[in-house]
Amino acid sequence: MSEGDAPRPAGTGVFLGIPYDFRRPSWQRIRARSWNAEDRRLFTPKSFGWGYDINLHELLARLGVIRR
Question: Which pTM does this prediction carry?
Answer without folding.
Answer: 0.79
